Amino acid sequence: MVENFNHLYSLLQPSLFETLYMVFFSTLFSVILGLPLGVVLVISEKNHVWEHKMLNGVLGYIVNIMRSLPFIILIIAIFPLSRIIVGTAIGSTAAIVPLSIAATPFVARIVESSLKEVPWGIVEASLAMGATTKEIIFRVLIPEALPSLIMGLTLTIINLIGYSAMAGAIGGGGLGDLAIRYGYQRFQTDVLIWTIIVLIIIVQVIQSSGNKISKKLDKR
Predict the structure, then answer these.
(1) pTM of the model
(2) Residue 117 DSSP one-character state
(3) pLDDT tens per residue across span 177-204
(4) How far is CA 25 from CA 63, 105, 215, in A?
(5) What is the architecture, at CATH level 2, of domain 2-217?
(6) Where are the domains of the chain?
């Protein structure tokens, strides 16, 4: 029994680290790219603080197209880009590229939805006091939408955990790769079950943490 536990631990520990590594950096990069994109989608709308119909329409179409692509197809299509950026298309580092690209439009729509929840009266009052577009974005829209943005970020992280498991199917590493290689191909049911349990625990911890942080930031 001890030997079996040690064997499971030796398999799960590095795979768990790879999954957390992929999810952390893909979340970071998708937020860096998706946050400003979502902000622009909101402020460039008709009658908003930086109205630009053409830009809004183009960005909207791009985001919709990217969101319509199944992740398993996207990760294969981006193999050449992964090779250019990280020098390989295989492994957890290479998987960060398609994970980030896949999550960026998702983050953008979450940011857009969150910022639209901010009452227009608050924005209008800020404009009346002479606030600039930059001030409205960083002192009004984002602070007011922060609880909703945290919940959106939580949802993004959970989705990326699922995406990272799919990336394991084509050499991305992580818990998904472990479940396929040992749980499916080698019929080691115990490895498959423990992989699922670890993923469930991760998701529960992230969701609970996100809920608590969002609730704490909500001043309403």
Answers:
(1) 0.90
(2) T
(3) 888 887 777 777 888 888 889 999 999 9
(4) 21, 16, 25
(5) Orthogonal Bundle (1.10)
(6) 2-217
